[in-house]
Each structure stands twice: as C-alpha cells, then as structure tokens.
Amino acid sequence: MGKTYQHRVDVLFTVSLFGVFAVCALMLVITGAGIYQKNVESLTANFTVRTSLNYVAEKVRQNDSEDAIFITEKDGVQALVLEQPIGDDTYQTWLYHSNGVLCELFAKKGEQLNLETGQEILKLHSFSMKENSGLLVFTAADENGNKESIKLYPRCG
Fold it and tell me: What gap in Å lies between CA 23 and CA 30, rounded to an integer?
C-alpha cells in the first residue's frame, strides 16, 4: 500500500505541476496577444496620420517654386494648390480633405474642377491647413483622436 500511495502522489504532483505550467503559459499568451493588438492599433494610427503629413510635405517640396504654392477654398473645402508648368501650360495639383478622405486632383489651370473626382489618398478624420507669412502648417487627425502637425516653409516663397 505504501508504494502505490507514493506512486499516486508522484503522478498527482506531476499532473498538477503540468496543469500549473499550462495555465501560466495560457495566461502569458493571452496577455501577449492583448499587448500585440494594442501595438498594432497604435502603429496603424500613427502610420495613417504621419503618412498623410509626409505625403503633403513631399508634394510641397517637389513643387517649391515662386508663387506655385498657395491655400485656397473651393465649394467650402480648403485646398492646397501646387502649380507646375508642363510645356506651354500650367497644371495644378489640388490636395484637400473631403468626406473623411485626403484627396488629390490634377488638372490644367483654369479648368472647371469637380472635387468629387479627386483621387483618394488616405482616410483621415480631419485635415487642416494654415498659411501664416509663408509658413504652412498642416494638421491631421485619425478616428482615434491621434493628431499630429507639420510645419513647412517653402524656400522659394
């Protein structure tokens, strides 16, 4: 009876130890999955906001020439207009926020524009732009309230 009892205790201890190990491993996996999900959400939010600001900044840098960059309003929508000569004509790139999306529209200067036909770039909750003595300030925000700004001072004014 003594050996059988000791054998049962050994088996019970081993099974209990395995059970504790399995529960700890499961809790570790669940905790890690939660942390991973929060990190992915944060990275996605930062990606959207920062990418939109970097996109606009690069467009401004590409078109940095005298009197080629200005902010205007069309149909109640604020837009950044970038002008560039191509051949004998001048073309405009319009960057604006409409219906929760940052959009781009490319057209010949003077043509009738329909902002609904612009190419969708990124979904954003809000996107604003200001110009103060040549300094351009762009602010973007996503659905989670993450907000960032960038300030640009075009060299050619």
Answer: 11
List of residues 6+ apart from 106 with CB closer than 8 A: 91, 92, 93, 94
**Hey, what are 76's tokens?**
């109640």
Tokens at 8, concatenated: 């049962």
CB atoms near residue 52 (< 10 Å):
24
Give the model confidence (pLDDT) of 16-59 as tens digits.
Answer: 999 999 999 999 999 998 898 888 877 776 788 889 999 999 99
CA atoms within 13 A on the CB side of 89: 7
Side-chain half-sphere CA neighbours of 144 within 13 A = 12
Nearest-angstrom CA–CA distance, 100 and 73: 17
SS3 state of residue 128: strand
* Burial class of residue 65 in the structure, from the number of CB atoms within 10 Å of its CB (0-12 exposed, 13-18 middle, 19+ buried): middle
What phi and psi values does residue 134 have, to the nearest 5 degrees? 90, -15
Q: What's the whole-model pTM score? A: 0.72
Q: In which residue are the tokens 């049962």 written? A: 8
